[in-house]
Amino acid sequence: MKGTLVYLLAAGVCCVLASPIDLLKPATTVVEISPRAELEDYRLNDDVMPSHYDITLTPYFEDEDSHQAFSFDGISVMTFRVTKPDVTNIVLHMWKINITSWYLKRASDSSDVPHGVETYDEETHKLTIPVNQALAENVDYQLIFNYVGILDDDMHGFYRSYYKVNGKKVWMASTQFQQTHARRAFPCFDEPRFRTTFQVKINRPATYKAFSNTPIILQTPLSNGRYQDEFAKTPAMASYLLAFIVADYEVNEKDGMGILARPEALNQTDYSLQSGIDLLREIGTWIDYPYSSVPEMTRMYMSAVPDFSAGAMENWGLLTYRESNILYRKDDSTSLQQQRIAAVISHEIAHQWFGDLVTCEWWDVTWLNEGFARYFQFFGTALVEKNWDLGLQFVVEQLQGVMQMDSLESTHPMTHNVYTPSQVSGIFDSISYNKGAVTLRMVEHLITTEKFQNALRQYIKERAFKSTRPENLFEALNEHGDASVRDFMEPWTVQPGYPLVTVIGSKDGYSITQQRFLVNNMNHDDKTTWPLPITFASKEADFANTKPMIVNTTTYKITVTNPEELLYFILNNQQVGYYRVNYDDDNWAKISEALRSENFGGIHVLNRAQIVDDLFNLARAGVVKYDAALEILDYLEDETEYPPWLAAVNGLTTLSRRIHHEDEEKFAKYIVQLFSKAHGLVKFTAPTDEESRLFTYLRINVLQWSCNYGSITCKKAAFDEFVRYYEDPANKVHPDLRQVVYCEGIRQGTDEHFDFLWEQYMSTNMATEQILILQGLGCAQDREQIFKVMDAITSDDIRPQDKNTAFSYLLLNPYTLDHLSEYLRTYYVRWANAHGSYANVASAFNNLLARMKTDEQMWRIRSFAERNEQVFGAAAYNSIQSGVTDYFSNQNFTNKHREVIGGFLDKALAKNNGAGKTTVGILTLVAVIVALLQ
């Protein structure tokens, strides 16, 4: 699961178009709120241990007697014991609820326990209840609370959402408790180490249904026309895993699995239902612990929620999803969206073991939950969808993706202290998710898949219904691998970053050295080292060996006979190891020559992707000159496989933001030239049933880049397809071509074309189609059209969960930047109201500053911020000033490398004098419209 607070879009490498991007790990950074209490004060002590909660909730969707609409009544009875003598205070969490009365009693006879007056700390969310004399050990007590809460619309806690039927809103309520929001629904010990059972009762209106983690065991009509649904007791679990939904939903159910959805969307649930059934069975078999082994879990429900801050959530037995991550219809969803749905389902189902059955003791080791779920998101899905080459996608999307964040000085280790709710939310990032999964894959290849699987089976059985720490995992891995597994794995979890391994040839072999890779500061004095998993290849057959030797020294010599006779020497077969590699000039020359030879010299497709990603980042870090890197990367003209092109798209996206604005036309011509052969290979055509999934993804990437940078052939084909659709809306565009077609339709079209696509957005019943349309609308160039989208973002026309998505697509289109700046400077109050704070205004400006290329653009924002410093407040104002500093840093980078990059572009274009004829007029750089589903 990935939660949200206030987010800034990442200014670094973009997410990849045709990979299974989900909202479990948004490419965002949480705005940190400075703690206003001592850090330890945010944590609970272990003086008191709860064992059970009885919770009764009554939600109101309209004014009813003395109850206000969008409120709820709650009764919570918490059973607990003290764990030590002399306990005179009970401290637990609550937030945004109003306790109307409370009682402290002995459970055995309901006798009152004398107590003092409670106190509450708004900052730490702690409710403290003093007792007049120490509570007795080995005695059950009960805290009984009567309270009132709010069904807010911020997608946290017990909150309200809606869908429309015939244009009228139909209200519902759902939950999102991870990480610290169960306390908004009932007073509780809201930390993952406190495992208890729960029994829930929902008093619902007669026209609604209620759902929770377990099945309903009793339905009782009430005198006020409501019904009370009582659910079976849950297994012992953490508070964040409790869930309930009150909605007029339908269920598509078979074989112990059910999909909950609004009635109009039930026809979009068949694929997710079958995927859920298959994945629950296969992952349970793989881990040798079937889901049904937990007696309380007699069925699994998965629910589509219209407004959902996260991508999905692993509530035990009641998984919740954003609609775009679970609702699928073949004729209206892309291949990538289908893969995303399967992958997100796999992620959440994996959590039933890694997170629910075995729960991280505290959020400082979130990776013990999320790293495993991300691992199974790929390798668990592959158990069911065997032809999607998910292992290849994992390397470029997950491993290379997290390297971007982890190469910054602001990164953090996987195991990392957190205390406040803001810090906890921030740890749910690509380090916990991607790097956690990458590290697990390294260990798997170190000890073999069979031993890795056996170790995890033991780990799950030993830690079932318990909290876990890394040492528990290390013990199981040591037992099934060898005693050195912990020595290998632990440094990767407790140290931030990763190494650059440099390979220098000599007459008798190769010397390797390691140094921490910091993309913006390679002249650092950081002496961190890691145990390196070393494999190498000098011919095609060698790449199959992924079982490494471990090098624990700063330098190491690999002895090779007659190294000068080798075709090449490439480190890190199939990029299993989490590190970058740089070579001396001679070896880079050999690699370059091999890449241009038949079958790319036998270099494995993942190592070609590794070379592409490493070169872009080594050039960015100043380790390799840009012209030298780009000369090698020019081999991409003949590349035919998806993973290397995927790595190239990432690198070129980052590079495009650093191209001097006066050089954008020749950069655009170069892009069209670079992609021209691939464009001819994939063609502008709908995918066939026979072609591979990765070829379909390659087509989408190639067409997008070719059209965006001005290929006449691509742009004409896309616009003609849009006009055909415009003239006959019943004849829809193939889903896998819609992203490109919608974009060109808006880019080249008229106001009528824009209004037509907007009408499709407002009328479609498919969340996946809405995302594709938002991508298309993001390609607008006209000021009035851009303002229309911004108006929609600040209105109810675009749902809260999709507002950042819509802004992202506008932001990634350079034609919009000046207009977005003008809109935000004019309507900043409206933007703050729509997004909840001026911090979001600052966030929007910072994202503009990260992409702007002229001082005039920057000064408009800087001057505006200075004039409105008092309105923004210190935190938001200082954030914008930080964005200005980053702007100057980006400009310095651009100017530093302009001559070298420009010289390469001139040379490359000179190879093909006709290349310019394939582009349209005087081009302004059009950045990639990325598939960020957030």
TrEMBL record:
Source organism, top-level taxon: Eukaryota
Active site: 348
A biological process from GO: peptide catabolic process
Membrane topology: Lipid-anchor; GPI-anchor
Chief location of this protein within or outside the cell: membrane
Domain spans labelled Aminopeptidase N-like N-terminal: 50-241
InterPro entries: Aminopeptidase_N-like_N (IPR045357), Aminopeptidase_N-like_N_sf (IPR042097), ERAP1-like_C_dom (IPR024571), M1_APN-typ (IPR034016), Peptidase_M1 (IPR001930), Peptidase_M1_aminopeptidases (IPR050344), Peptidase_M1_dom (IPR014782), Peptidase_M4/M1_CTD_sf (IPR027268)
Feature type site, description Transition state stabilizer: 433
UniProt EC number: 3.4.11.-
Ranges where the Peptidase M1 membrane alanine aminopeptidase domain occurs: 272-492
Keywords: Aminopeptidase, Cell membrane, Disulfide bond, Glycoprotein, GPI-anchor, Hydrolase, Lipoprotein, Membrane, Metal-binding, Metalloprotease, Protease, Signal, Zinc
GO molecular function: alanyl aminopeptidase activity; metalloaminopeptidase activity; peptide binding; zinc ion binding
Signal peptide: 1-18
Positions of the ERAP1-like C-terminal domain: 569-873
Cofactor binding note: Binds 1 zinc ion per subunit.
Binding site for Zn(2+): 347, 351, 370
Gene3D superfamilies assigned to the protein according to its UniProt record, in alphabetical order: 1.25.50.20, 2.60.40.1910, Neutral Protease Domain 2, tricorn interacting facor f3 domain
Stretches of the chain forming a coiled coil according to its record: none
Stored PANTHER family: AMINOPEPTIDASE, PROTEASE M1 ZINC METALLOPROTEASE
Entry protein name: Aminopeptidase
